[in-house]
Structures are given as structure tokens and as C-alpha cells.
Specification:
three-stranded antiparallel beta sheet, 3 helices, alpha+beta
Length: about 70
Amino acid sequence: MLQGRPALSVVPTLEQKLLTVREVATQLGVCTATVYTLCAEGKLEHVRVGNAIRVTLRAVSAFIARRGG
């Protein structure tokens, strides 16, 4: 508690859930190396959490839509 108030918590929605590289690879039907390459080339929106890459479901859906899938 901060100054008598309960701490806020963030509950992610399904679209905001952060997927691992392995989960994204499964969704896209590719290997994990391909997901790392897509992230490095800026083709797949992602965030870094510590040393790990995470991708939202929304970003995966947007990637698929751009690819015409």
C-alpha cells in the first residue's frame, strides 16, 4: 500500500498477453530463428523483457494480416 491506497495491478487482456518466441513460432508455423530474424529486421513488433523477446497477440495478428494470411 502506498499512502493508504492499495497497489494497482495490471491485468493484461488477451490481446496484450505477451507470447514467447517459441509460442510465436508455433502460431506462425516457423522456427524460432525465423521469429528472431523478423524481430531483428523490424517486421514483427516486439518488446524486450530483460534479455527475452516477447510479442503480443495483436502484433502477431497484424503481421499475419500484412502478409495476406
